[in-house]
TrEMBL record:
Residues 92-178 form the Transcription regulator PadR C-terminal domain. Residues 7-80 form the Transcription regulator PadR N-terminal domain. It comes from Actinoplanes octamycinicus. The keyword Ribonucleoprotein does not apply. This is DNA-binding PadR family transcriptional regulator. SUPFAM superfamilies: Winged helix' DNA-binding domain. Keywords: DNA-binding. The keyword Signal does not apply. InterPro entries: Tscrpt_reg_PadR_C (IPR018309), Tscrpt_reg_PadR_N (IPR005149), WH-like_DNA-bd_sf (IPR036388), WH_DNA-bd_sf (IPR036390). It comes from the Bacteria. GO terms for molecular function: DNA binding.
Length: 185
């Protein structure tokens, strides 16, 4: 997926400024697609030049004017075309998994360092899962009355929750294995 498509989806959900888009990426879209503020602004500029988005200057009291972006007909056509393309499985790059495999060639002290790294990594993902669960509770308190768009956002969030739970289970298994190997040394 190109960043352009993630931005088009976000702007169709709600027009906004580059800053507002960056905040959405931090809060929700970042669950499945990350981008820096600089990347978002650079891509918005290109999308505007390509005619996929339009911008309107919005005056603000006591602040500089902001540019609010919305999707043009050409942008909607681009997104529709992309939505109809087949999706291929993504190649997964997971540095920690390579380190775990590489631990077979390290000494016991190195494995102890890897245990510390897995514990740290696990804590970060436990925190991320907690944020996802809090976001679900905050943003989707009554799933029985969600609009179609909200139901689709919710199912993506549920995928993120399921992924984090799976990852935490795997990390627990990695820790158990590494600790058993340490005891055997």
């Amino acid at each position: 997926m190109a960043l352009e498509h993630a931005i088009l989806v976000s702007l169709l959900e709600q027009p906004g400024s580059g800053y507002e888009l960056a905040r959405r990426f931090e809060r929700s879209i970042g669950r499945f697609w990350t981008a820096t503020h600089q990347q978002i602004y650079r891509v918005l500029k290109r999308m505007e030049a390509d005619g996929w988005v339009t911008a309107v200057e919005v005056g603000q009291e006591g602040k500089p004017d902001k540019r609010t972006f919305s999707v043009s007909a050409a942008g909607r056509a681009e997104l529709t075309g992309w939505l109809h393309e087949p999706v291929q499985p993504e190649a997964v790059r997971h540095d920690l998994a390579v380190k775990v495999r590489g631990a077979a060639f390290d000494d016991p002290a190195g494995r102890a360092t890897l245990i510390d790294e897995v514990v740290r990594y696990r804590a970060e993902h436990e925190e991320l899962l907690a944020r996802y669960l809090a976001g679900e509770k905050r943003d989707f308190p009554d799933v029985s009355s969600l609009s179609a768009g909200d139901r689709l956002q919710h199912v993506v969030l549920r995928g993120g929750i399921a992924y984090e739970r799976m990852l935490l289970d795997w990390l627990d298994e990695v820790l158990t294995t590494l600790r058993h190997l340490r005891e055997e040394s």
